[in-house]
Amino acid sequence: MVQTKSLWSHMAAILTLGLPLIGSQLAQFLITLTDTVMIGWYGVPELAALVVATSILFTMILLGSGFAFAVMPLVAAAAAVGDVVQIRRVTRMGLWASMGFAALVVPVLIMWRSLFAALGQPDQVAILAGDYIRVAAWGLPAALIFMVLRSYLAALEQTRVVMVVTLASAVLNAGLNYVLIFGRLGLPELGVQGAAVATVGTNLMGAATLGAYAAWKHPDHAIFVRLWRPDWVGLGRVFRLGWPIGLTLLAEVGMFSASAVMVGWVGVVPLAAHGIVLQLATATFMVHLGLSQAATIRAASAYGRSDGALLRRDGTAGLILSLLVSFVTVVVFLLVPEPLILVFLDASDPLKDQILATGVTLMVLAALFQLSDGAQVMVLALLRGVQDTRVPMIFAAVSYWGVGVPVAYVLGFVLEMGAAGVWLGLLAGLVMAAALMLHRFWLRILPSVEVGRG
Fold first, then answer.
1. Where are the domains of the chain?
2. pLDDT tens digits for 118-140?
């Protein structure tokens, strides 16, 4: 009975931390969705340009975000033992690493305009994509600062302010998009460049707000005092933990990007259905991601105290919550796929019935991979909590690109299963990742922490 109560208390603790983080992730997803919808209202060439340009920008943000994600377990572990100096050091150096990455990447993105045409994009799309990214790239430093500060505050279990600021950012982004894209309130009509300016403004507001809150709430941490002074040891810790995280994220997102390319080879209807179902799966993934970030904080706190029993209970609680979310998602995806898909379709579209039929099939497959997708993101978060990132990076590369993409190609095109075969390949990659990471956490890392860190 005591163990059962203890497990429930651990689940409650993860939910308390995780629910605001889920809200934050869904708000971030809403920002991207708002950009897409409003530019879609403006024009088709502009929408195509936005998709191309943001795919490049998002890839760069993913790579750079590894340092921000590294701050979370490092701060949580230091906070668990009251080490204010270490909190300050890793947060500052998280900002340093992120700004160093931005200094390398922003000039490249600004010069990307001429490269869109070289990538085979139509002239109009290449010009519009260049116009967008030339402006939006200036928001990358603020976006990365926001992510570092979000990790810092979340690690200190202050997740509500993160959610509130992200929701406010979503509202601001929608308002700026409306005014700048379409030229309202006496301002010029900027089209796709208006969306880019809105992105920069939203990123700046989010970073400034979280920075002001952090300075006010934790003056003893003094994370902005003498920020110019290097701490090479702290920077090394953030860098060593962070770069594998960035590559791990890139490996998974890259697999899904490759799947979109492959489904595009099948045809327009399967690609449209793929895009819709992937949007729905992404929305549910945000729930898993929020919970997993809470699990990272809990695991890092247990690791900081060298408490293997606490780590085991938190790990068990996190996986149970992940399974519960997956079960609910599976039920919804299997019972009501048509209404969910129809939200994205115009009733007068002549291809509606074909897209719906294909989409229903893909929804079944999306339901199948909920369990493995939820499990792998949760265990990956637990591994980050104990500062284990390099081996999981290798597991991700092997699972997604050694298994997922090749299986998707073979089933989709060699065995001629089309879009369904591609999605089965995604499932194979996620199952492999979940199995490898579960094995590492439960059978390798956890026993070593229980015996004594080392």
1. 13-230, 241-454
2. 655 566 777 787 888 888 889 99
